[in-house]
Design brief:
CATH class of the largest domain: Mainly Alpha
Strand content: under 5%
Distance between the termini: 33 Å
Number of helices: 18
Order of helices and strands: HHHHHHHHHHHHHHHHHH
Shape: globular
Largest sheet: none
CATH topology of the largest domain: Growth Hormone, Chain: A
Radius of gyration: 21 Å
């Protein structure tokens, strides 16, 4: 059957949303379920905080470098077909994670998971955006935001319970049966999404983007170890800059670019992308590094830690769909700007965390930060998707996911570098000194995140409603 001749209305739009939400939940769950287990994984594999961060970073790193490539590929061969393949790759990677016997094997298996998630994150919102009319799109994307929150919420709870009462391996094995069922449903129940079978994939552009992003991350992650002013570190960052310049030049001249630079001719689209990056770069270090503070310094068990961490995503789950619905009615500017400002206040409040704090001291700060994030994400996603025409939904969807994951990996790498630098000065000191050094580094990282969040709020206030003809002319 020629899917390019079947309309998306061949499949009920709410079924499409449900299936996309299932895949989104699995991908998001595997971010938060690992963070709560990081202290345990560090102990099991006898490694350091710097290496442990790659249990999260490798997953998001691979997603980041492949998102736009898969977004374009979905536009070319069909988003439903690609989404189904992505789920199968994710399931395979999940099984490999559960079977890992070393830190290196787990990092590689997490990267394999990231390949599958890159597909679902780029194609999923595009499927939903094509199925729903513009007046309902913000609400639909708000439901995806709610599912993202649910995955982040369930991860600490499920992960904490599994680590406490079973074995960490089962965090990953859970994905296998659910993923297989989802793949079957996608293959048999969903039809009719636009494709452009005559396109050609921009391999050179994808490779240059991968080199640029990977070099930048390597520099941020290991710059402290190599020396920030060393020839090796400067060479790595130089490679990142040169690759980025070549990438932009390549995308400007090829017929079917991975990243369509015409999208950025729209001022509002650029504002949405920049503020989206800053939002995730400022908040994701909390999710990754707070578990070390809660377990190692406050001495809560994994199941209790999961409950504490779940307070933030629980806020996201309630607020995200409301914010998406409101954005359909009143626009995105006020919601996004206020949300970023509230997130910044939440990050600033974490400056008063100490070894004497209790669970409530952590929980209310997480709630405040995530309240701001929930007010920002759905309106910003709807704002970006409304800038483009249907045949560009894949690339636009991939761009949303790209800035999200680029924000995540850069935020993790920056925060990790700051925390590692602080810990180096106390590496041979007493345990209390090491704990105080970790808290100092964490606070410095979160203070930088606060500056990013407030800056993004100011940028977001300058947005205007996107004008589609500016993007596609």
């Amino acid at each position: 059957m020629d899917n390019s001749k079947i309309t998306p209305q061949s499949t009920p739009k709410w079924l499409i949303l449900t299936l996309v939400c299932m895949g989104t939940f699995m991908s998001t769950l595997d971010i938060s379920i690992v963070t709560v287990a990081m202290p345990t994984l560090r102990s099991v594999f006898h490694t350091t905080v710097a290496v442990s961060q790659w249990f999260v970073l490798s997953y998001n790193f691979v997603i980041t470098i492949l998102l736009l490539t898969f977004g374009k590929l979905g536009d070319m061969i069909g988003r439903r077909r690609l989404y189904s393949y992505g789920i199968l790759v994710f399931v395979t990677g999940s099984a490999a994670c559960g079977l890992s016997i070393s830190a290196a094997m787990l990092i590689l298996a997490r990267a394999a998971q990231g390949i599958g998630s890159a597909v679902t994150m780029s194609a999923g919102p595009a499927l939903v955006s094509e199925a729903f009319p513009e007046g309902e799109r913000g609400r639909a994307l708000g439901f995806i935001g709610m599912v993202v929150a649910a995955g982040l919420l369930a991860g600490p709870l499920i992960g904490g319970a599994i680590v406490q009462y079973l074995s960490w391996h089962w965090m990953f094995f859970l994905n296998v049966p659910a993923g297989l069922v989802l793949s079957v449903l996608l293959s048999t129940r969903v039809q009719g999404f636009n494709t452009n079978q005559n396109g050609r994939l921009d391999i050179l552009g994808a490779a240059l983007m991968a080199v640029s992003i990977s070099s930048a991350l390597m520099g941020l992650t290991y710059g402290h170890d190599f020396g920030w002013g060393s020839a090796l570190t400067l060479s790595i960052f130089g490679l990142a800059v040169i690759s980025a310049i070549l990438f932009l030049k390549t995308e400007a001249r090829v017929k079917n670019p991975v990243l369509d630079l015409r999208l950025f001719k729209n001022r509002g689209f650029k504002i949405g992308a920049i503020s989206g990056w800053a939002s995730y770069a400022s908040t994701i270090p909390v999710l990754v590094f707070m578990p070390f503070y809660i377990e190692d310094i406050l001495h809560y068990q994994p199941d209790k830690m999961g409950m504490i961490l779940a307070s933030g995503p629980l806020t996201l789950a309630f607020i995200a769909p409301i914010a998406g619905h409101l954005s359909d009615r009143i626009g995105s500017r006020a919601l996004t700007s206020l949300g970023l400002a509230i997130a910044g206040v939440g990050l600033f409040s974490m400056q008063w965390l100490t070894p004497a704090c209790n669970w409530f001291d952590v929980a209310w700060r997480l709630v405040l930060m995530n309240l701001g994030s929930a007010m920002f994400v759905p309106p910003n996603s709807s704002f970006i998707m409304s800038s483009v025409k249907v045949e560009d939904y894949g690339v636009a969807s991939g761009t949303i996911a790209l800035v999200r994951n680029l924000g995540m990996v850069s935020g993790i790498a920056l925060a990790g570098a700051i925390i590692t630098s602080a810990e180096q000065h106390a590496i041979s000191g007493e345990l209390l000194i090491q704990h105080l050094a970790f808290i100092s580094g964490l606070k410095s990282a979160l203070l930088f995140g606060m500056v990013l969040s407030f800056g993004a709020a100011a940028v977001s206030a300058m947005r205007v409603h996107p004008v589609k003809k500016e993007v596609v002319s």
